[in-house]
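Q: What changes when 5'-O-[(L-methionyl)-sulphamoyl]adenosine is included in the input?
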Amino acid sequence: MKPFFITTPIYYINATPHIGHAYTQFAADARARFERLRGREVYFLTGTDENAVKIARVARAQNRDVQEFCDELAAQFKAVWDALGITYDDYIRTTAPRHKVVASRAIEKLWQSGHLEIGEYSGWYSVPDETFFRAEDTIERDGEHYIAAPTEDQTKAPLEWVEEKTHFFKLSDFQDFLLEYYTAHPETLRPVVRRNETLAYIQSGLRDTSISREMDWGIAIPNSIPHGEDHVIYVWFEALMNYFSAPGYLSDDAAQREYFEQLWPPDVQLMSKDIFTRFHATLWPALLKALDLEMPKELFAHGFWTVGGRKMSKRDPETIVEPVAFARQIADFAGTGFEIGVDALRYYSLREVTFGSDGDFSRAGCLARYNSDLANGLGNLVQRALSMLSQYFEGVVPEGKSDLGLQSAAVEALPKIESLYEKLDFSNALNEIFLVVSQANRVIEEQKPWARIKSGEREAVAGLLRELLAVCQFCARALAPIMPFSSRRLLKLLNVSPDTSWNHAADFGVLLAPGHRCASPSPLFPRIKNLEEAITQMTTGSSNEMAPNQAQLNMVDASAPPVEALAPQAETKPESAETKLERATIEYEDFAKVEFRVGKVLEAERVPKADKLLRLQVDLGDEQRQILAGIAEQFEPETLVGKSVVVVANLAPRKLRGFESQGMILAASSPDGPPLGLVTIDADVPPGSVVK
Ligand code: MSP
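A: The predicted holo structure follows.
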């Protein structure tokens, strides 16, 4: 089988990378790691786009040598990707000789084969977008021209008039070919919404496109082509060529050319939706066809990350979240290492939205998910399994059989996860894995091994433990593409080699056979102790960011564990197995401390700038309380007025978005879904009545 070839866009280096860029890297890295785990050779290509006019302008404005400026920024990009665990196999810089040579040769080839012609270009050009605009797509105001209907990330600044002799790529020649190709191979364009958009764009008519510019920064049009003097290749046209220059197309090195032959075409090319239709799904395949190169197998456009509804973009600095700084922050809040913070970020990004859709990035939401899914879910499971193993069986896997359905749940989940990874449906792949985690935690609750061991049922507990360890191993394998650092740590705790392949994910017998010794327990994902404080600390100063969604915040109290986790929490300091297991249940006296009362909703209104919060005034009989509840997306405020709800009346007050919440109302939800219904009273009881 040929090596698996996956690409990301090459990023402009006029600013440092943000979460939007990191997102494409996380996705590409997850897919690349998955293929490697399955034993396939992978060529994962990323890089930087350095020949843009805007980059030269930024450098010159700072009195810098442009190449030196590029070297510095490219190094910064690489450092960020390395820190985030991005396992790219090649990094292409468009100022590197290997790219320049190939780009000029490709242009020569296009000229010789009649795909270029010389013409006169006059029209509007946007430097920030590095894009030409037809006159009919611009508008005139006060003597300046602007993009008539700019998308949210296109410039609102005046356009530049360009009038020059230029080289045109005869794109119109490829209109029929592209339509036919995509009709015969619809799977090339994903998701479907982008395919439809692309077909409509091509059907509306393709025009020949100018591919050279009179500039002093970029790759020169070769001398062999008439009127090439002072012209460089249009940066977009040249940037696309990175995908073949890097692996060795038209290279001088025979071995490199041979590798290229073996590798081509790309299996998956990832990018966000803004550069899909016009560039990657039209210009790029036309260029390939003109050079007689095979079409990519799949072009996939993911959505945008927004912050408070605005696209995360270097042009809107308030929206920027820097991935390395943020990963460090997560780790610091949890009191753990940087790499676990990186994994938490990778997890959140790929879990939060379906790949292909837009999502609103919330750092608060990410922390909340860390606690609910990672600390309380997976971390808890691992901690409990290893604590029991250490305490009851001296850390050695015992003999013992049980069939509580956990092993089979994992075995059944595996092929589903595999096919979801193949489809780049990371969110659902994670969902499948975490369903098994929840099931395992539930089985522990039901089986109460701490009680059974006391009553002498050692064999049953041994069987349960074997299943739990198997699930832990399954999680480590199945999560490895997305959370590589945690996966390694978990395998280390299980004392299993990280080098075994994907097929071992469901291999329960061999690696964790009786007699195998595991390491002593140590929390994989220490819980963020005061989540709400952490969130406040983090979001102060970024008024733009949305409040976390309430499912994540678990109703009004952000630091409370989710309902499914009235179970041991992973703490920073390792606890003894005894204390941890005893906390699986609570004593009656503890429960009795919680005061539930009936409250009647008198008023309800939305909280400005917090899409998920409602502010309720609630009658508790002898007093009126203000309570903030994260249910604004599910309930219209007016439908709540007059309802009798259940209030946790003796919860310490907390400030949320500047309002004090004096209690909490109860709602039912699936473990990590939004609130689905409020807990109400089925009789006409007066406000203030005690619920017990
Ligand atoms: N240099 C061109 C691409 C040339 S590829 C031959 C370019 N560079 S860019 O720096 O603007 O980065 C574009 C890519 O960054 C997007 O395709 C996407 O992968 C990523 N993203 C940038 N902002 C993003 C969001 N807010 N959300 C999601 N991804 C985004 O265009």
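Observations recorded in class: The domain at 4-103+236-307 is CATH 3.40.50.620 (Rossmann fold).
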